[in-house]
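Exercise 7b. Backbone tokens:
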């Protein structure tokens, strides 16, 4: 089977837009994906038919909102193969999920402990662990990458030791597209007794995720990169770990009992979810996942790989263009620099032609430094992109070269 891209595109109203007088060619999917009508409808339906606070009201709408909200937790749990739906904690996004974990880890780390991250880390993962180490006196160790953008797996194994208390790594690099062998690396880290967090921001939208198969302790991702709304994300954590995790935000919803002098905490998942949650976001995310489950994961993968392959061929034929990130195992991300042209100028000229990409350091400043580039231009593909989009990208790049080089 192949993906029916025309039918998929029809479900994304924004793709019918023009920008700068040109049909939109949206190639900034690693930053955020567009939303299908099913997600937009779910949000509108929630606000027009069901809006109410959850877990609180003694009335019909509150009951209905709570049912939809908790059903969404089950949808997410099934999508990532969580053992129990209470392991799904709602967050505002990957960043908050990682911070939630770091809040707990930092309280347990001590001088002499080591935390492992990688050279390809997004700031959300890097800065959080760097600061957790600073607070606790633990040492941050950075696993190097090869020039291709692949993780140096041998170095990973060498850096792992009995001192390793925690390992955080991306499933997929947002800047380069590299897919890391997280299952193998997680197994090695667990064998040393470390806890493992996978930054899944770029991992979730490109294939089925099975957190139990990966074997990690935590997996964090954002709804907005998975065709869902912004402001909603998921931290999945193993029940036995989360159940004794230090509380994070305190306030309503997460308590069991409160006196003026003290409080006791509720059960999972509530104990890690203080305050009124992003109910519409949760429902929108579940709608996105349900919609995505209507497509065949293998077809999605094959389609994105075909786009990447064609884009890579055209990139290799483009004089002066250098691909940044040439790992054999990549999602549909093409990061590149062009001799003599600043990435920001490439982005500007592409935008004038309706082609939306991202330029800059991709929230990975140390990685850019490591690779010796000021930043890159990054085209990232999704299920609704076509071969015509790839051709449009390179037509626009050629124009940029004619204008600027
Ligand atoms: N990690 C990676 C690998 C990412 O790509 C991103 C988003 N660019 C994040 C973390 C942070 O995600 P969010 O901004 O949605 O919290």
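Sequence design result:
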């Amino acid at each position: 089977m192949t993906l029916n891209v025309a039918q998929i595109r029809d479900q994304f109203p924004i793709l019918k837009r023009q920008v700068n007088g040109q049909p939109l060619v949206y190639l900034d999917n690693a930053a955020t994906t567009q939303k299908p009508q099913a997600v937009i409808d779910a949000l509108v339906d929630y606000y027009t038919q069901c809006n109410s606070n959850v877990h609180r009201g003694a009335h019909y709408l509150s009951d209905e909102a709570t049912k939809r909200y908790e059903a969404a937790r089950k949808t997410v749990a099934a999508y990532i193969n969580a053992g129990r739906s209470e392991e799904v904690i709602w967050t505002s996004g990957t960043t908050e999920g990682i911070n939630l974990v770091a809040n707990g880890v930092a309280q347990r780390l001590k001088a002499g402990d080591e935390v492992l991250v990688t050279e390809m880390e997004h700031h959300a993962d890097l800065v959080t662990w760097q600061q957790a180490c600073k607070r606790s006196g633990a040492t941050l160790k950075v696993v190097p990458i090869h020039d291709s953008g692949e993780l140096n797996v041998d170095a990973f194994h060498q850096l792992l030791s009995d001192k390793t208390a925690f390992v955080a790594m991306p499933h997929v690099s947002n800047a380069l597209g590299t897919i890391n062998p997280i299952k193998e690396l997680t197994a090695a880290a667990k064998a040393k007794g470390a806890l493992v967090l996978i930054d899944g921001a770029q991992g979730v939208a490109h294939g089925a995720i099975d957190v139990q198969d990966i074997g990690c302790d935590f997996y964090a991702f954002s709804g907005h990169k998975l065709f869902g709304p912004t402001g909603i994300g998921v931290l999945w954590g193993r029940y036995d770990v989360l159940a004794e995790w230090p509380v994070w935000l305190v306030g309503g919803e997460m308590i069991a009992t409160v006196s003026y002098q003290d409080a006791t905490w509720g059960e999972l998942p509530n104990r890690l979810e203080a305050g009124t949650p992003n109910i519409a976001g949760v429902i929108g995310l579940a709608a996105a996942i349900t919609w995505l489950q209507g497509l065949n994961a293998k077809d999605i993968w094959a389609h994105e790989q075909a786009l990447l392959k064609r884009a890579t061929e055209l990139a290799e034929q483009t004089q002066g263009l250098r691909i940044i990130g040439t790992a054999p195992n990549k999602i549909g991300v093409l990061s590149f620099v062009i001799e003599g042209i600043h990435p920001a100028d490439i982005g500007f000229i592409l935008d004038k032609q309706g082609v939306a990409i991202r330029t800059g350091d991709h929230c990975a400043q140390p990685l850019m430094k490591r690779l010796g580039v000021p930043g890159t231009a990054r085209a990232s593909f999704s299920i609704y992109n076509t071969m015509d989009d790839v051709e449009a990208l390179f037509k626009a790049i050629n124009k940029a070269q004619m204008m600027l080089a």
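Instructor comment: The chain is about 40% helix and 15% strand. The pocket of 4'-deoxy-4'-aminopyridoxal-5'-phosphate is lined by residues 93-95, 122, 124-125, 170, 174, 199, 201-202, 222, 363 (CB under 6 Å).
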